[in-house]
Amino acid sequence: MKKLLWIFILSTAIFSPGYCNNNGDITVYNLKENNTYILNIDYNADKIEISDNNIIDIIPITTLTDSHQLFIETNGSGICDVLINSNNKKYQYRFITGKLFQENKDELIELDIPPVASI
């Protein structure tokens, strides 16, 4: 009975669609927890929907000229779906954060920012 319960829990966690639906391309990134990244996209982000803000925070980088970059901060470990809407395109991302990670594609740049020391 315990095995069936674990199979059910894991299958729902793995196949949970979150914000991402199956009719478009979903880009999956495996990130380090408690780290920061810059994500390059083709168009300016008008609206950003995050399924769990406890796992990831995403902030558009705004400059005087048009910038197509997002600042990503990973806060904890887990799975988070993100929908980004622009005038021309919809982006669907699934971020998996944790202690184990993989090298990512060229669109994602890892930043080496030391954590703030608490006093």
What does this structure look like?
- This protein is mostly beta strands and 119 residues long.
- It is built from one helix and eight strands.
- It has one helix at 2-14; strands at 27-32, 36-40, 47-50, 56-60, 69-74, 78-85, 90-98, 108-111.
- The strands form two sheets. The protein has a four-stranded mixed beta sheet with strand order 1-7-6-3, with no helix packed on it. Strands 4-5-2-8 form a four-stranded antiparallel beta sheet, with no helix packed on it.
- A hairpin with a 4-residue loop joins strand 6 (78-85) and strand 7 (90-98).
- The termini are far apart.
Q: What's the oligomerization state?
A: single chain
Q: How many β-strands, per DSSP?
A: 8
Q: Can you tell me the residue ranges where pLDDT is under 50 for at least 5 consecutive residues?
A: none
Shape: globular
Helix content: 10-25%
Distance between the termini: 48 Å
- Report the average pLDDT across residues: 77
Main beta-sheet annotation:
4 strands, mixed
Radius of gyration: 16 Å
Number of helices: 1
SSE ordering: HEEEEEEEE
